[in-house]
Specification:
By secondary structure, the protein is an alpha+beta fold. It has helices at residues 2-18, 26-36, 38-58, 100-168, 173-207, 232-242, 244-264, 312-378, 384-419, 422-427, and strands spanning 21-24, 64-68, 89-98, 215-218, 270-279, 295-304. The strands form two sheets. A four-stranded antiparallel sheet has the order 2-3-5-6, with no helix packed on it. A two-stranded parallel sheet has the order 1-4.
Length: 440
C-alpha cells in the first residue's frame, strides 16, 4: 500500500513537472480557442463532412468511364455476360442529362454545406465567449489576490499596534480581537483566491485546447474597441440579422424544402447519356453470324418514365414536410431566445455601468477619508491602526472598482456575442487606454 502511494505521488509530480504555463492576452486566448478548441475542431469536421456530401450529390451529373475486358471461353452461342457480349476490350460511360430529383438533392446538399459553415462560426463564437468569460474571471481573481496580498502587511501592522495600545491601556481588547479577525479573514480570502485562480486557469487552458495539466495566465490586454449599439432595439435587430445559429437553421429549412421537391419529382422522366465501345473476338461470332464487325460502339440517351413508383417517395415527402415544420418552430424559439438574451445582456450592461460609477464614487470617498486620517495622524489625533484600517478600506474599494469594470466588459462581450460581432471586435481591438483614476 505504501509503495502504491509513493507511485501515485511520483506520477502526480511528473505530471506537474510537465505542466506548462501559457501567459496570454485576451485577444491571444480567443484566437487560440477559435483554432484549437475540441468543439470547434468537431464543428469543422462536420463542415468537411457536409462538403463531401456535395461531391456525392454531384456524382450522377459527372461522366464516369469504365474500361475492361469481357474475354471468355465460349461454348455454343455467345451469350452476354452481365449484359455485355464477350469482347477483347470494352469501354462504357454514363451520365445523367436530365434528372430533376437528383438536381434537388444536389441543391439540398449545397444548402446543408452552407449551413454547416454557419454552424462552425456559431461554435467559434460560443467558444470565444466561454474563453473570454473564464479569462475575465481568472484575471479578476488574480487582481483580487494581489490586492489582498498587499493588504496583509498592513493588517499585521494593525494587529501589532493594537496589541501595544491594549498593553498600554489606550485601546480595548475588543479592538485587538477585531484586528486579528480582519487579518484571519484576509488570509483565508487569499488562500481561497489562490485555489480559485488555479481552477479557472486550468479551465481556461482546457477551453483553449491545452491539456488539463497546463495553465493559462491572463495578461493585461487591449480593450475591446467595438461599441455597444445605443439602444436595445438596435442590438436586438443586429442580433437577429447576424445570429449564426439562426442562419444555419434557415439553411436547414431551405434544404428540407429542396428535399421535399426532390421526392415530389420522383414521377418525372429521367434522361441519361449512355455510350459504350467493344472490340470483339472473331472466334466468338464467326460460326453464328453472316457478317462480323470487330469494332462496335453505341451512343445515345436512356429515357426512363416512372409509371408506378410506389409509396416510398410519398412517405419521404411527408417526413420532409414534418421535419420542415419542426425546424420552423425551432427557429421561432431561437428568435425568442435571441431577443430575451439580448435584452437581458443589454440590461446587465446598463446595471454594470451604474455599479461601476458607484464604485468610483466609493473609491473617491475612501481616498479622501484616508487623506484626512493621514493628516490627523500626523497631528497625533488618531492612532496608526485607524490609518491602516483606512488603507485596507481603500484597497477593498479598488477591488470593487476592478470587479465592476470586469462586469462591464463581460456584459459588453455578451452583447457582442449576441450580435455575432465578438471575433470582429477582438480582431480590431486597440491598446487599452489608461483608465481614469487607475491605481498607481
Amino acid at each position: 500500500m505504501f509503495k502504491l502511494k509513493i507511485a501515485a505521488i511520483l506520477t502526480f509530480s511528473i505530471s506537474l513537472a510537465r505542466a506548462e504555463v501559457h501567459p496570454l492576452t485576451l485577444q491571444q486566448a480567443l484566437e487560440i480557442a477559435s483554432r484549437q478548441n475540441p468543439d470547434v475542431a468537431l464543428a469543422r469536421l462536420d463542415e468537411q463532412h457536409a462538403q463531401a456530401g456535395v461531391k456525392i450529390a454531384q456524382d450522377p451529373f459527372r461522366p464516369k468511364v469504365y474500361a475492361g475486358s469481357g474475354l471468355a471461353y465460349t461454348y455454343g452461342y455467345p451469350n452476354s455476360i452481365e449484359g455485355n457480349a464477350p469482347s477483347l476490350f470494352q469501354v462504357r460511360t454514363d451520365e445523367a442529362l436530365f434528372n430533376r430529383q437528383k438536381k434537388y438533392q444536389l441543391a439540398s446538399a449545397r444548402e446543408i454545406a452552407r449551413g454547416s459553415q454557419f454552424g462552425t462560426q456559431a461554435k467559434v463564437d460560443d467558444v470565444a465567449y466561454q474563453a473570454a468569460d473564464l479569462f475575465l474571471t481568472a484575471s479578476q481573481i488574480e487582481h483580487e489576490s494581489q490586492t489582498i496580498s498587499d493588504q496583509i502587511p498592513s493588517l499585521q501592522k494593525v494587529v501589532e499596534s493594537t496589541t501595544a495600545a491594549v498593553d498600554e491601556g489606550t485601546q480595548l481588547g475588543l479592538d485587538l480581537k477585531r484586528a486579528r479577525v480582519n487579518l484571519a479573514v484576509s488570509q483565508e480570502r487569499l488562500g481561497s483566491d489562490n485555489l480559485d485562480k488555479d481552477y479557472y486557469e486550468m479551465m481556461l487552458a482546457v477551453v483553449l485546447g491545452y491539456p488539463a495539466t497546463d495553465r493559462v495566465k491572463p495578461l493585461e490586454s487591449p480593450a475591446i474597441a467595438a461599441a455597444v449599439p445605443p439602444s436595445e432595439q438596435e442590438a436586438t435587430d443586429m442580433a437577429l440579422r447576424n445570429n449564426r445559429e439562426l442562419r444555419q437553421m434557415q439553411s436547414n429549412v431551405l434544404a428540407k424544402e429542396l428535399d421535399l421537391r426532390s421526392y415530389n419529382a420522383a414521377h418525372l422522366p429521367q434522361v441519361d447519356l449512355v455510350a459504350q465501345y467493344a472490340l470483339f473476338a472473331r472466334y466468338n461470332y464467326i460460326n453464328y453470324f453472316q457478317k462480323f464487325q470487330r469494332n462496335n460502339a453505341q451512343l445515345g440517351a436512356s429515357v426512363t418514365i416512372p409509371i408506378l413508383i410506389g409509396s416510398q417517395f410519398k412517405g419521404l415527402a411527408q417526413q420532409a414536410y414534418t421535419d420542415m415544420q419542426k425546424l420552423r418552430i425551432q427557429m421561432d424559439q431561437i428568435r425568442n431566445r435571441i431577443m430575451t438574451d439580448t435584452r437581458r445582456s443589454y440590461e446587465q450592461w446598463q446595471k454594470a455601468e451604474n455599479i461601476r460609477n458607484l464604485a468610483r464614487m466609493q473609491l473617491d470617498l475612501a481616498r479622501e477619508e484616508l487623506t484626512v486620517l493621514l493628516a490627523q495622524n500626523g497631528e497625533g489625533r488618531v492612532p496608526m491602526s485607524q490609518v491602516e484600517q483606512a488603507r485596507i478600506e481603500e484597497s477593498n474599494r479598488w477591488i470593487g472598482l476592478f470587479d465592476s469594470e470586469t462586469q462591464v466588459t463581460r456584459a459588453k462581450l455578451a452583447i457582442l456575442r449576441q450580435m455575432g460581432t465578438l471575433m470582429t471586435a477582438v480582431h480590431s481591438a486597440q491598446l487599452r487606454p489608461a483608465q481614469e483614476g487607475s491605481k498607481p
